[in-house]
Every structure is written in C-alpha cells, then in structure tokens.
Design brief:
This protein has five helices and five strands, in the order E-E-E-H-H-E-H-E-H-H. It is an alpha+beta fold and 161 residues long. It folds into three domains: 79 residues; 26 residues, no CATH class; 45 residues, no CATH class. The strands form two sheets. The chain has a three-stranded antiparallel beta sheet, with no helix packed on it. A two-stranded antiparallel sheet has the order 4-5. The longest helix has 25 residues.
Length: 161
Amino acid sequence: MSKFIGYRCSLCGQDYLPGEVTYTCPKDGGNLDVVLDYDAIRNKYQPEDIVSRADPSLWRYLPLLPVPEVDGGPSPLHVAGGTPVFDLSRLGQKLGLKRLWLKDESLEDSANLPAPGVIAAEIMEDLEAALEQFREIAMNLGWGSGKNSLLEISQCLETDG
C-alpha cells in the first residue's frame, strides 16, 4: 500500500484522491495538504530509520515524502535541504521573540564552486586591488609617501583616530 493517500483542503477539509486536483482546492482555493497513511509508515519505519541516514538533503526523509525516489542516481534534487540553521535565542529575546533562527544559505551552491586555487587567486586579486585603492586614498590625504605607506598610514590612524 502506498504511503500517499491524497490531499486535504486546508480551509474546508475536503479530501481528494491523488491526481484528482492540483495545487489548490477547486471549491474554495485553499491549499492542499498531503495526506499520508501514517499507520503504514509507523508499521514500516522507526525514527532511527530517518535520523540515521547520512544523506544531508531532504531525501533522508524519503519514507515520509509523497514522492518516489528519483531514478538514475544523484540529481540536483539531492542537493536540496540540509541548510545550516543557527539558534539566535539571545537576539530573539532582545527583539521580544520566543524563537529566532538564522538560515545560512551562503553555501547553497557549494557543489558548483571553482577549484580552491581559483578562489584563492580571486581573493588575492581583490585584496591587492583594495590595498592599491587604499594606498591612493592615503597618498591623497597626505598620510604616506608610498614606500612604507602601510606603516605610515597605521601611525597616522593611531594619532588621528
């Protein structure tokens, strides 16, 4: 027996069979919630079956998803999920919130990053360009003569700042 039974409208509670409707309830436009056969899932799986999976993507929850596994090995779908989330409870308290979480999506596309050497070279180019701009600004402000400008600039900042 399939774990996916059908859909239930979030507004009126009307049940629909799989394939009978798409996205919203035809009666009132309510969102359709997925209805699963929880007894069948409970009889077949234990919580350890889910949490012990090494896959960091949402596919670790496959026994609970109303979809079949994607054939043909890894796909872009296997990258979805697993985004790090951080508890910011102290900041949340200051803002009057019961819970505050930060979702870090900065590594979402980490599978398509350039090689580390390319990244390092780009960082060095950016740092050198920034340093050159900083030297020009310092020279225009009269903070350095050029050769030892970083040392002179830091000394000026300490005395001026």
